[in-house]
């Protein structure tokens, strides 16, 4: 026969062991899940994200060869470098737009005539989405509809 209170002690030890296993399991689960949670939010943000979307929109439905992709990436890198060399307040000015227009012209030259048609259509669609782009060249803001 067991001395009095032994059963309670054994039950308490068993409960503590189970509790430790639960805590260790939770810590391991959180440790494994944390990198996955942070990796989901790795997309581009802010203005850079918009530029990435614009570049993707310009080349929508265009399949580039490896050579074309290399050239387009180099053109974009050079344009990015020139734009970042401008003071922050001038990046959206006529100077910044000129750099992007020149880069788009160079990209267009890399494309085949068939790809150029798609590129031109994509460019036109982008201009229409942002209000035609007519007021942008004059430096004025489009008037809001009342």
Automatic annotation (TrEMBL):
Superkingdom, taxonomy of origin: Bacteria
Compositionally biased residues, Basic and acidic residues: 80-93, 126-140
Region (Disordered): 80-146
Polar residues bias locations: 113-125
Signal sequence region: 1-39
Alphabetized UniProt keyword annotations: Signal
Stated name of the protein: P pilus assembly/Cpx signaling pathway, periplasmic inhibitor/zinc-resistance associated protein
Originating organism: Ereboglobus luteus
């Amino acid at each position: 026969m067991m001395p009095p209170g032994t059963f309670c002690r054994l039950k308490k030890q068993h409960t503590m062991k189970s509790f430790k296993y639960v805590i260790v399991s939770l810590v391991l689960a959180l440790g494994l899940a944390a990198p996955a949670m942070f990796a989901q939010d790795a997309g581009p943000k802010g203005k850079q994200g918009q530029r990435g979307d614009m570049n993707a929109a310009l080349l929508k439905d265009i399949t580039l060869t490896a050579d074309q992709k290399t050239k387009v990436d180099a053109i974009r890198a050079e344009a990015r470098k020139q734009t970042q060399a401008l003071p922050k307040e001038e990046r959206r000015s006529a100077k910044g737009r000129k750099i992007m227009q020149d880069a788009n012209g160079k990209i267009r030259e890399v494309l085949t005539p068939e790809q150029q048609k798609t590129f031109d259509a994509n460019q036109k669609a982008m201009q229409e989405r942002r209000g035609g782009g007519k007021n942008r060249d004059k430096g004025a803001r489009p008037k809001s509809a009342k």
